[in-house]
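Input record (one chain):
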Amino acid sequence: MKLALAGGLLTALVTAAAAVAQPAPTPFKLGTFERQGRTFVGIVLRDAVVIDFGTANSAITNPASGVAAPSDMKDLIARYDALRPRIVEIVRTVGDTRPAYVYDVSALKILPPVMPTTMLNVAVNYREHDLEMARRQGDTRTATAGEAPAGTTSAPGIWERKEGDTRWNPFMFIKLPGSIVAEGEAVRIPVGRTQIEWECELGVVIGRPASRVAQARAMDYVFGYTLENDMSDRGGRGDTRFGSDWLITKNHDTFAPLGPFITPKEFIADIGNTGMKFSLNGTLLQEGTTAQMIHSVEEQIVYGSNIVTLRPGDVIATGTPPGVGSARNPPILLKAGDRMTCSYDGVGTLTNPVVAPQN
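The corresponding structure, as predicted from the sequence alone:
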């Protein structure tokens, strides 16, 4: 019995030592691309080169793959636990070589990294953004900097307010799939609309079905991170029927640039304190950190999943720091010829031009 115990302990120690000795994987991102009319999932290295996952999976036979390559990004996300070892293996095997299935990013058409079934956006989730939007409206509403106005209560079954929590409840809205465009694609100013602006946001990509998630486990449901530029039309609808109109404000065609890639969560050290910047035509207009959020990533997952079941590939866009154009004096509104650059540290940079209306 003692020999058996000693043998088991030795095996455990050897296994643990081997695990410790394993080098950390080379950081990678994941994207969706098109080349010569064919769409494929790619492994992105250094934001510069792309490995065609499916072709590499077939071509690398020492060792051969034990799993099928993903059919698309949602399939990859849903099977990531099984596919991750193969991704690491492919990256290690390719190294600095350039087999036929490795391309420069510039040689490919970048598509949205994933087409979410549900994309939820969080409204006014930075305290200073609340203040600037109140100033924009001439203080016609009370600026709270995220503090709950008098009379705020829980939303039964959705958001239960904890004792001592002085923040307002989260607020989410839908961003329609039809508004999604990719890195480099143009944001088109809608016909007759003149008050268009940007909101540079971190996108949280869901990794597995999430329904009524407990906050302590919320990060277990995160696959990774991307970027969304939450375009906004501040021109209103010409009346006050039923209050604000989030369809007009947020969902014109091209109003949700998404990408360029997805960074798996393991490669972001602290998503709760990740820096961001937004530039327009090379001029820095937004700079902040996710530490300034009113409601954290975990809380947003809790809130959203208590309303709708989130599925692999769904995205939660987490709000924007201060610095949007309509809140400036004088306002800075988008026009044809502008170029927007939205960046989050470690996640990537999303760049989109602005073009004139199409009559």
